[in-house]
Amino acid sequence: MSAPSQPATTPSGESLPAGLTPLDFQPRTRVVFGPGVFARLGALARELGGTRVLLVSDPGLRSVGHLDRAVQLLREAQLEVACFDDVHENPTTVDVDRAVTVAREARCDLMLGLGGGSSLDCAKGASFLLSNGGRMEDYWGYAKATRPLLPVLAVPTTSGTGSEAQSYAIIAHAETHNKMACGDPGAAPRIALLDPELTLTLPRSVTAVTGIDAISHAVESFVSTRRTPLSTVFAEQAARLLVAAFPQVLAQPQDTAARGDMLWGAHLAGMAIENSMLGAAHACANPLSALCGLTHGIAVGVMLPHVVRYNQAAAPALYAPLMQTLGFDRPEATDAGDRLAQRLTGLLEQGALPTRLSACGVTADLIPQLATQATQQWTGKFNPRPLTQADFQLLYERAL
Ligand SMILES: [Fe+2]
User: Fold this and answer.
1) What is the pTM of this model?
2) What's the first-to-final CA gap in the chain, in angstroms?
């Protein structure tokens, strides 16, 4: 993610229109996509040059058989495998430390993240510590590693974070619960293996929560202040695929084509984030996860319609190209933001997800604290309409 460090201004400080935002795009991740490509795992891992693989995953992956199959495929390719399959949602520094302990004992030289964004981020986090030492806090920010990172191979089994497209590991501090975005060009997976068949067994609730997260990535990155002519291409195509496929995978979970659209859409949305960052819905969501324990996709899904209305009120045509792609008529009308927000709320309802914070156990007395924490979220700084603490408070009140 090289774009965020470059302000969208001329050298003399004048603002540039989004279409002229400078960009420096260097693809770092080889993408292997298709039904059944998981069978190539062993051969692809061998191509990365390692001999002892740390397989980072979570208990759910073992129960559906994906983890055992991965171990089998790696061993068939003459690779040694050590497993850490106890990653928690919103992984913390403790998760990474435990993965590192397993990897050090087995002298692993290749990281494999198999699962949702939590497993992928934990594998990236382990790569930082194994190659450069220290603690995750040392890598908070971008390009803090001084030595080459261990290669990471990413196999997402959800269509959500798009972490396999990104050079950041999002790791929460175990004590403060602050989400630390630790980035480095070397942390980008060397290979992303995208097999829609791995997502066929996802429970409906996980399909819904991760799908809404991916949709929010497309919508937020499309209007981020760091958007570029390239990131908007990724975001627009991601939104088109995801919004169309989301109801279909809920209705027909075994539809491999729709699952493929979700997985590919989530990957493209991840590429959009990598090249443009996110916005206020994610800034609002992080404190809801830290203080109230909300699942990331639920928190971001509840907040997104309110952020869309807030942003569009200041820039009526902001979402117009995206809405045109999604088939809306009159995308530049003054009520366009409201109609897009209604569509997003409709998707939440289709996924049987909450549409209000009060339904998630959030109470009004928490809002000042949530708003204070939201102002400290890095990602909020890229929202197209700036927000003060009072603005965040208003968004939370509207979402309550
Ligand atoms: Fe997200």
Assistant:
1) 0.94
2) 34
* Ligand 1: centre distance to CA 360 (Å): 18
Tell how far the Cα of 264 is from the centroid of ligand 1, in angstroms.
16
What's the CA-to-centroid distance between 282 and ligand 1, angstroms? 6
- Ramachandran quadrant class, 182 (left: phi over 0; alpha: psi -120 to 50; beta: rest): beta
Helix or strand (DSSP H, E) at 339: helix 336-350
CB 271 within 8 A of CB 251: no
CA-CA distance, 157 to 246, in Å (whole number)? 16
| Torsion sign over Cα 339, 343, 349, 350 | positive
Could you give all domains of the chain from N- to C-terminal order, each with its CATH number? 30-199 (3.40.50.1970), 202-399 (1.20.1090.10)
Q: Are 126 and 153 in contact (CB under 8 A)?
A: no
Residue among 276, 73, 270 nearest 189 (CA): 270
Distances (CA, A) of 245 to 198, 262, 264, 299, 328: 16, 6, 11, 21, 17
User: Can you tell me the distance from the alpha carbon of 290 to that of 317, in angstroms, rounded to the nearest whole number?
Assistant: 34
What pLDDT digit, counting tens, does each position of 343-371 carry?
Answer: 999 999 999 999 999 999 999 999 999 99
How many whole angstroms from 272 Cα to the centroid of ligand 1? 12
- Per-residue pLDDT reduced to its tens digit, 82-94: 999 999 988 999 9
- 140 to each of 181, 295, 336, 383, how far by Cα in Å? 6, 23, 38, 21
| Model confidence pLDDT, tens digit, residues 215-270 | 999 999 999 999 999 999 999 999 999 999 999 999 999 999 999 999 999 999 99
Place of tokens 């807030």: 310
Strands (E) located in the chain: 30-33, 52-56, 80-84, 110-115, 141-142, 152-156, 168-172, 179-183, 191-194
Ligand 1 centroid – CA 167 distance (Å)? 15
* Distance from Cα 78 to the centre of ligand 1, integer Å: 36
Q: How many A from CA of 377 to the centre of ligand 1?
A: 13
Residue type at position 300? V
